[in-house]
Design brief:
two-stranded antiparallel sheet, mainly alpha, Helix Hairpins, 245 residues
């Protein structure tokens, strides 16, 4: 009978990407940190598209640990990246909604796979912590694409306040900023959802952020408290019985 690893992990991905969780976290973190500085660059939009491409490819590597998710993830990334780059070079030929929806579905698949890994992990490890951080950041990026999609469909879905003459469109950076402000429930009020869809997205993201942090902490504490007493009990028994002579 083949082992569970052979059944679920494609040999190629497991061999070349043994630290897929860390790769994804580094790429995603780079994309988020670099986003504020890309708007002032001449090729900022190109770099933004390139970094998002790396994020989605790294996401395929993560979900590719299981054959059941590798095929749909590969299809989504091909459709999403093809639509993204066609839209970049020929905006009139490809509506942005195509790559936004494909990206949302792929990120949702990545989040589910990370949650599955965290909930099934027997103990707290570096990979579990990486998956926990990555999942939180994935939520922020997933809702970023959702806000961009709503902003494309309804130009009046959000209202902007603050500096006059500023960028008052739900572009990639504004959507990213608003998403993480909402996810952390900070709510500065400089961007306000107006349409019903935008409001429900904001409510669902804020709720997800609060629940996820609570569940993650409970899960990590549960894993740690389950393993530690067993080790302590074993050490106590060995100390009490003394060495065999």
């Amino acid at each position: 009978m083949p082992s569970s690893t052979n059944r679920s992990v494609p040999g190629l991905l497991a061999r070349f990407f043994p630290v897929s969780n860390l790769i994804f976290l580094v790429v995603l973190g780079t994309f988020i940190v670099a986003s504020p500085f890309l708007g002032s660059l001449r090729r900022g939009a190109l770099i933004n598209s390139a970094l998002l491409t790396l994020v989605l490819i790294a996401g395929v590597i993560v979900v590719g640990a299981r054959r059941a998710t590798l095929v749909p993830a590969a299809l989504l990334v091909v459709v999403g990246l093809l639509a993204r780059w066609v839209n970049y070079f020929h905006p009139e030929a490809m509506p942005p909604a195509v790559h936004l929806i494909a990206g949302m579905l792929l990120l949702g698949l990545v989040a589910v796979e990370f949650l599955r890994f965290i909930l099934r992990a027997p103990r707290v490890t570096a990979q579990v912590l990486q998956a926990g951080i990555s999942t939180y950041l994935v939520f922020g990026l997933l809702w970023t694409l959702a806000y961009m999609l709503v902003g494309q469909v309804d130009l009046d879905a959000f209202t902007f306040s603050g500096e006059a003459g500023g960028d008052h469109s739900m572009d990639s950076f504004n959507a990213l900023y608003y998403s993480f402000v909402t996810l952390t429930t900070m709510g500065y009020g400089d961007i306000v959802p107006v349409s019903r869809v935008a409001r429900m997205l904001a409510v669902s993201e804020a709720t997800t952020g609060v629940l996820y942090v609570s569940i993650l902490i409970a899960r990590l504490v549960g894993m740690y408290s389950t393993v530690t007493p067993i080790q302590d009990e074993g050490n106590t028994n060995r100390t009490a019985s003394g060495p065999d002579r």
